[in-house]
Specification:
The protein is an alpha+beta fold. The chain is built from 21 helices and 15 strands. It has four domains: 12-114, no CATH class; 120-186 and 333-366 and 450-512, no CATH class; 191-303, no CATH class; 370-449.
Length: 542
């Protein structure tokens, strides 16, 4: 059965050989197929021109298909039907094969689809409304950081909208790496919005007029353009001043002694009216403003900054999906920008999965935030002890060694990056005890619990690839339209955090577990022993 665990449907390449060729008729028992052409004018069959070719007979085709379904069932959770079980009975004289069928195989198809697997995992991506709108504009989410989380304790941070993915999105490959923890992978580059001259003139007049003598202290046309296009006015004083002025809520700026007092007054008006309803109204208003400015010749050009040339000139590129991906590719774990922290160090040591089956087997490492945090805090202390041991060894060589040098030494030792010019003088002082601590620390980081596994597809992911969405109760109609236009019709709304978590159970069809463990105990055990951190690592380094 070698190779059976490599894909979610490992026998598909053999199943493809059973697919009937269009236009051919297959015999039930004779290994032959035939095809009779028709008269091009009258459509009558031309019996004398009938072709015959050897082929797998229909009965054998049906039996082999049932056999493939049954062989895959322990590993994929795609249960064989009663007809499958009946078809393969003549092919085996022992119950060994049938014994591998998971419990519930004889249930109806509808019942199996509605059932939630035990301790299931689910693929999700959380996103903010403005990021969703940008993805809709450019044709996809550039290299999103997606999570494989427990459906019972899903991830609810990083965005108020949750997009639900299928298990196929979690299949590891070179173009779809999956790490055993938050891998601190690269984020999309910052978007800059540059309005054209017409848009600048409109913003200067329409937004500046409401600021009075504080116009030149507050108004930033690029900032206004960005927040309007993102439909996320946030706390941009110029935008809020115009919005509240349009509603008749804005005081006269001439009544304030300086622009600090005026800005605080604008913020106070927002605080009085704060809430999801105000946010939705602001977003809708911002979109109308963008349309109004565009209707009179204004443009909002999205750009990304690509650094400087050798001559010191700034390099810019249009914020297309292609250009954004070009900036993000080629950066692996630990590239997010946070260095020498417990999380970033763990990310660089976290192994990548090789198959979906391996993800299922390791799912006991995925815990809720509270449970994972206790192990993370322990690991944080262990890393601090290890860093202390390295620091003391380095100070024995150079009492004035810089903290950054110690941090680089710690990572070089843990990641086995070898000796460098800066570290030659320190490496002889790194004792066997310190290296043994590094070996144990690597094991701790590799096997410690996590809140989720991270998927980082090396491409832009269209919204249409997601199977469903969980959104706030007061999500705007324009945001819902984006989801529905992408073909996402299974959308649930939540009023609070508890309801949001509960709604993940509404997607049993995309949850996945490890049914092989129930079918064949010991073969792919899902109950891995709780990781124990060596007490020696918790003691202060001597």
């Amino acid at each position: 059965m070698a190779g059976l665990l490599d894909t979610a449907r490992p026998l598909d390449k053999w199943r493809g050989l059973l697919a009937p060729d269009p236009g051919w008729q297959y015999s039930g028992m004779v290994p032959m197929k035939s095809r009779t052409p028709r008269d091009p004018i009258y459509g009558a069959p031309q019996i004398m021109q009938t072709e015959f070719k050897p082929a797998i007979p229909g009965m054998a085709r049906e039996m082999l298909g049932s056999l493939f379904n049954t062989l895959e069932a322990p590993y994929t959770g795609v249960m064989p039907t009663p007809a499958d079980v009946f078809n393969i009975m003549p092919m085996t004289s022992t119950p060994g094969l049938l014994a591998k069928i998971p419990a519930g195989a004889l249930a109806s198809g509808a019942a199996r689809r509605a059932a939630v697997p035990d301790d299931p995992l689910i693929v999700q991506h959380n996103i903010q409304p403005n990021a969703l709108e940008r993805a809709d504009r450019i044709g996809g989410i550039p290299m999103p950081s997606m999570a494989v989380a427990k459906a019972d304790s899903p991830l609810t941070g990083y965005g108020e909208i949750t997009l639900i993915g299928s298990p196929d999105m979690a299949k590891p490959s070179a173009r779809n790496p999956v790490w055993s923890a938050d891998a601190y992978t690269t984020r999309a580059p910052h978007m800059f919005i540059k309005p054209n001259k017409a848009a600048e003139n409109i913003i200067n007049k329409d937004y500046g007029d409401h600021l009075g003598r504080f116009k030149y202290s507050i108004l930033d046309t690029d900032s206004v353009a960005k927040h309007l296009l993102d439909a996320d006015p946030g706390y941009d004083t110029a935008i809020l001043a115009k919005f509240f002025n349009d509603k008749g809520l804005m005081p006269d700026p001439e009544g304030f002694k300086d622009y600090y007092d005026f800005s605080r007054a604008v913020e106070n008006v927002r605080n009085v009216h704060q809430g999801q309803r105000l946010n939705n109204e602001l977003r809708s208003w911002a979109k109308n403003e963008v349309r109004r400015i565009k209707d009179v010749g204004g443009e909002f050009n999205e750009r990304i900054f690509r650094g400087h040339t050798y001559a010191g000139r700034e390099r810019w590129a249009a914020a297309t999906l292609k250009n954004i991906l070009r900036e993000m590719r080629g950066k692996g774990a630990g590239a997010e920008g946070f260095h020498h922290t417990t999380g970033s160090t763990r990310a660089k040591l976290a192994p990548r999965f090789k198959s979906l089956a391996e993800i299922k087997r390791k799912r006991s490492q995925v815990l809720g935030y509270g449970k994972a945090k206790s192990s993370f805090d322990e690991a944080d202390q262990i890393l601090a002890n290890f860093r202390g041991a390295v620091r003391d060894a380095a100070k024995g060589v150079n009492p004035d060694v810089h903290t950054q040098t110690v941090d680089e030494l710690v990572e070089d030792i843990l990641l086995k990056r070898g000796e460098h010019e800066y570290s030659k003088q320190y490496m002889p002082a790194i004792t066997k005890k310190i290296r043994d601590m590094a070996d144990e620390l690597r094991e701790v980081f590799r096997d410690m619990p996590t809140e989720y596994f991270e998927i980082k597809p090396q491409r832009g992911v269209p919204l249409s690839e997601f199977r469903g969405a969980i959104v706030p109760k007061e999500t705007s109609a324009s945001t819902l339209k984006i989801l529905k236009d992408a073909g996402i019709t299974k959308i649930y709304k939540y009023a609070d955090h508890a309801e949001r978590q509960a709604l993940f159970k509404k997607f049993p069809e995309v949850m996945f577990s490890n049914p092989a463990a129930a079918a064949a105990p010991g073969l792919l055990s899902t109950q891995q022993p709780q990781q124990r951190i060596p007490r020696s690592l918790l003691d202060d380094a001597a």
